[in-house]
Structures are given as structure tokens and as C-alpha cells.
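Notes to self, Folylpolyglutamate synthase:
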Amino acid sequence: MSQARCHLRAALFLAAVSPRGATTGVTARRGLSAWPAPQEPGMEYQVEDLDQLNIIHVTGTKGKGSTCAFTERVLRSYGLKTGFFSSPHLVQVRERIRINGQPISPELFTKHFWHLYHRLEETKDGSSCVSMPAYFRFLTLMAFHIFLQEKVDLAVVEVGIGGAYDCTNIIRKPVVCGVSSLGIDHTSLLGDTVEEIAWQKGGIFKVPGSPGERRYLDGLGLALKAQHGVPAFTVLQPDGPLAVLRDRAQQISCPLYLCPPLEALEEGGPPLTLGLDGEHQRFNAALALQLARCWLQQKGHQGLGELKVSRPSVLRQMPLAPVFQPTPHMRHGLRDTEWLGRTQVLRRGPLTWYLDGAHTTSSVQACVRWFRQALHRGQRPSRGPEVRILLFNSTGDRDSAALLKLLQPCQFDYAVFCPNLTEVSSAGNADQQNFMVTLDQVLLRCLAHQQYWSHLAEAQASPDLWSPPSPEPGEPTSSLLASHPPCTHSTSSLVFSCISHALQWISQGRDPVLQPPSPPQGLLAHPVAGSGASVLREAAAIHVLVTGSLHLVGGVLKLLEPALSQ
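result:
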């Protein structure tokens, strides 16, 4: 069997082993007790073996992936061999497990997948109806195994869902922990309030101390108690969840610090350049710098510079993390960070694709600010109309109507809805299969999104209920709105059965890279699709915001960037 077919078969088996998701609770224990595969010397581990991975453990509601990406890239700039476990993947499942910033190769994925799969088969409990760990738990075990086999200097590990009961929380002794911005998400698992969610996130704080942790605390000039937990950092949060995090940390003597804003670290030096766009990324970068510096100091690295504040002040009953001058390595790491699908822009002829996997209220708000600012900064065509298009989907227990309402100020000319399916047929597309839903279910969800959008447009058209959306300072309004007062503007909407059909309609053959097969019969049968196609073919500029789901963004990237599938 060819290597490519072996890899495809492994991906298909992974998609089918058991339901997806970062399964919580004690059921994670079975997979860990059976971990990992036989047939190779040194492949029988204990949970304590994870200690040698020198882990940075990061949770949060939004920005935790970007924080991890910044942290990994900064530490890699020091010449360290890094492992990085993240979720979800955008195009290929191999993206979740990275060595030195690159997804593991198909050969490495295939090799370690089958070793782990067969080992779990051998240790299966005959009395259990579940034959394999769930999708996310399986990948977590696989990531730890690969990082140990590849002898990385450190591993940056992103929590799947929550923290306290997430299967990544089998880690006993991380070097440092981080909590990015908190908000409402995964309410069916984590709770209905931000405070309940904060309790779950604070579950990654750890008790045991180490000489390295004592060295870090000594460096801050803090008095030591008999035992200290693993240092942890968080960004500024609302008072309620911040108090919950503080209490969780105090219960186990975990030193928790509040990150100062990035501006404080820029004082006395040139501004920091970030590889990821958007003002919200500055919070993630500030957290990443604290995590990276703490890790380096605990591991005895020199040349980190003097702290600007030796004894942090206390804000909201929580000590402030140290202010320091970022080193050249740190600056280069932040500048060179890449994280696909987050505030990403692709310019293709008259089309500009804005890709952001925002899927919570706060992250969609940040996405809207980024998109409007990007439009304001961009060059307007000298002649011809501009068109704005929203491509949206949302899954799970998220409040789609609330997310769509936040997107209305962008003044889209067309709203397009489709499932997170690249093609109607999923044959040969193992990395993006989801056996938990049917095509009918996801299409009904898209129709509900279209209905929400129509209701919002009707409400917006009523001056008694809505005021006209206010543009950013100097922001151009969409040219298709020029002949209509803002309060009477309505967005045409369409539903397509897959991402490929949606992109074919949006691009109208004008994207030089996107070369899909001939459009299906009847693609333009709907009056809106037919009239819209004429508008799109004549537009001087087409701005497309893709948001609402990282899986949607991944499907779009699969078609717009074919190299990512190789």
C-alpha cells in the first residue's frame, strides 16, 4: 500500500474511532493506562514521563491558540526544539501536532497513529462498549508520545475545552500555565456564566513547585512560602471571572500574575511588530511574552535582561507580572508568528479574502473591528463598485443569531451561508469528516442562519428599532449602498450546500488560484444568485469576510491554498 493511501486510511480510522470532542471526566484514564504502542523500545510510559516535556499549558475562551503560536515562535527563535499541540485543525489533522512549527509529516503521523491504535486495541476492556478513546483524547495521547519520541526541548499544549476535566490536564508538572481572555462558549460542558467557565479554566493551575519555579519567584523578589505551585499568568478579565481565577490559584498556593499591557513592555524601546493582525492580538502577545520569559528563566537561560519592576504592584488583589524589555529573539519571534485562519488576509486579483475563525461573542466583536479597520486601511479602486460579502457558519450550542447581529455593522451586500463541508461528497476528505451530523442537519442549520439574518435586516430597516450603523472614522461605505439610505439597506442572502459551491459563486472565476470544477447545474437558478453573479463579475473589488467557525475557515483555505493539502 502506498504511503499516501496508508496516511488516508489512518485519517479515516481516526475520524471514525469514536465521537469528536475534548471529552471530559474520568473516562480519559483508560486511554492513558494503555498508552502507547508496543514494538518499539522505550515506548511504555508513565504519566510522570510527561514532566520531561517541559510543558507550557494554556487555556482560555478566545486567543489561546494565538497565544500558543506566539509563545512557540518566540521560544523557537532561541534555537529550542519545540512541540506544539493545538486544536482544531484547519485543513489536515497533522496540523494539530507540530515540531518546530511545522505539522508532522504524513509518514510520522501514519507510523505513530497505527502504533497507538494497535496498542489500544490490545488493551481494550472487553466489558466496555467503547473500543477507542474519543477523537481528541486519541490525538492528545498521540501528541505526547510523538513529543517524547522526537525529544523536544519543550511542548506548548493548548487545552481542548475548559481545563479542569480536559484530557490535556493529565499534565502533572507544567513549567508555566496561561489563561487567555475568557468568555461564553461550550456552555453545555462548562456552564452558563463566565464565572463557571473561569472555574473550569482555573483547573489547569498546579500545586507542585520545583527549583526552577523558586528561581523565578526569587527573580521577582517575592517572599517564598514552604511550597509554591506552578507560576501562572492571565490577561485582564472582567471582575467576576478574575476573582474566580484568583481564588482557584490561592486555594493551591499557585502564584497567579496579571499581565501588564503590551505598551508597558514597549516603553523605552521600538514598538513591537506582531505577525498576527488585530488589536486583540496584543493581549495574546503580552501573555505569550510572560509565558516565554518565565519558561526561559526557570530553565536557567541567560541574557533575558533586567526586570523594570522588581516587586510588582498589586491590582485587583492580584500581583502584576514583571515589566521587562523584550529581547531581540522575543521581538523576532512575535514578528515572525504565523497562525492561519486568524485575522488572515489573502489578496487575489479583485478579490480580498478576510479569514477569521471567530465563534464567540467577544471574538466576533474583535473580528468586526479588525475587518472594518482593514477596509479603512485598504486602497479603494479608482472606478467601479465594491462589494462586501459575508460567508458564515456556526455550529454547536453557539447563539448564531447573536453572532450575526454583531456582524451587521459591516454593511454586507450579500450574506452567504453553507455547512463546513468542502464538497457535498466527503470521499477522500477524511481530515474534515464529521460523523456526528448529517447533511440534512447542517443544511437546516444554514437555513436557520439565513432566517436570522433576514429578521435582523427587517429590524434594521425600521428606524424605530435600529439606528443607522456608524462607520469607522474615514471608512468607505459599500458602493452598492450608495443609492439607498443606510436605514433602508437590506442584504441579499443565499444558502449553498458546500463551501466549494459558495466560493464558485462568490469568485465568478476571478480568483486566479481558485480553479474548481465546472459549477453544478442550477447554481445560478435562484434569482438572487443570478443577479448577484452579474454584480460580482463587474465589481472592481470584492471583500469577503469568512467567519463564525474555524472549520469553515479551514474548508475555505483548503480550496484557496491547495498547497496546504499536500
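- Residues 74 and 330 are 5 Å apart (CA to CA).
- The chain is about 35% helix and 10% strand.
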